[in-house]
Amino acid sequence: MMGCCSTACGIGGFFSRFSRRYRRRYERRGLEPTQKQLVEGLNLIGLKGRTLIEIGCGVGYLHQHLLLAGASSAVGIDLSPAMLEEAQALAARQGLSARTRYVQGDFRDIASGLEQADVTLLDKVICCYPDAYGLLVATLQHTKEVCGFTLPRDRAVTRLGARVAAFVFRVLGSTYRPFVHDPHAIDAQMRAAGFRKVSEAQTVIWLTRIYRRSGEDALLG
């Protein structure tokens, strides 16, 4: 069995408890607001025939929605086995089993065994990692052209919320901690890696961005 650091184990253990709730919520309400923003941004670029990697895929409904909208195949990665069980069941019900593959583990640990995809997605994932820079380095190494993600807006209210949540998780004995990373530093990292921002949207809490590889390396039309 693959070992994991306390942060990764805490993430997997915490979210495993809510796998059925996430699936039921999607069945009642559909995509979350940030996911709708990601879909809108990706639709501006075009997804027909494109391959996907979703890091922290949960029960899978975001990449499965994109498959139904024209993407060709998807790899879903998550720390929680319960989340992936729900994702596989949901894919089967939608006739997507042959176009999906699910891998359990910390993306940074298993990335070397994965091929690149046209599009990589991280919906509410960056905030789960203390090392956002390292996570994005590994992500962009597996991104042929487009990377889309959501992260908390760097505001006093979100920083306070993260501190309160960290205290609650500590009291409950969980090693999971949320993080509010600097969006400007992340933008600088993306630009330094050769990506340009093509879409941005926000909610009260979340910031949604789509980046596309610049210059001659761009692969999508």
- State the domain count: 1
Shape assignment: globular
Helicity, as a percent range: 40-55%
Please provide the count of β strands: 7
Strand content: 15-25%
**Biggest pleated sheet:** 7 strands, mixed
List the helices and strands in order: HHHEHEHEHEHEHHEE
**CATH homologous superfamily name?**
Vaccinia Virus protein VP39
User: What's the CATH architecture name?
Assistant: 3-Layer(aba) Sandwich
Q: Give, in spatial order, the strands making up the sheet with the most strands.
A: 3-2-1-4-5-7-6
> CA-to-CA gap between the ends?
41 Å
Uncertain residue segments = 1-6, 216-221
Instruction: Indicate the structural class.
Output: alpha/beta
CATH level 3 topology: Rossmann fold
- Computed over alpha carbons, the radius of gyration is 16 Å
| Tally of DSSP helical segments | 9
Write down the overall mean pLDDT.
87
Name of the top-level CATH class: Alpha Beta
